[in-house]
Amino acid sequence: MDENLAQIPGRIRELREILEISAMDIAADIGVSYDTYSKYESGEQDIPISALYKIAGRLGTDATVLLTGEDPRMEHASVCRKGKGVRIERYPGYEFSSLAYNFKGRTIEPLLVDLDPSKAPADPVFHSGQEFNYVTKGCVKVTVAGREYILAEGDSIYFDARLPHGQYAVNGPAQFITVIQE
Fold it and tell me: Rounded to an integer, what distance in angstroms lies between the CA atom of residue 96 and that of residue 89?
């Protein structure tokens, strides 16, 4: 695991303790069991990206602080050069790169997602808000509420992210850009 990713649970625990918020309170506030939250904080269980953003909101910070240990700095514009996004590995077979991690107060989260078909697909997820996916390489099967959509390079889909959904590479590696609005 990437060293920076391994530090996320410790950053969460440290900030929670500084703010004197109990783990039980955060678990309730983000809608997970205390046992699940404890596993997030101990590093025993990967933190879903939607939970990471809820935790950041509850702690009154930007998710970038939890991901990198640094505050976002840009107020007017933030450029992310090719291959320089902050890597986030939260589900088997998915590798996320945050493309706007350095922009203060962002209201959407654009991510570059690489799908590895050799790894077992993650279970469907759901979170608040809406989501947009645009396929940049390969072929992606997107499921939303049990319905399947096959997307080729240049295709896109927009959906209600409160519905169970997932993305899977078809016939080899694939890549897409997702924009999440919580």
Answer: 6
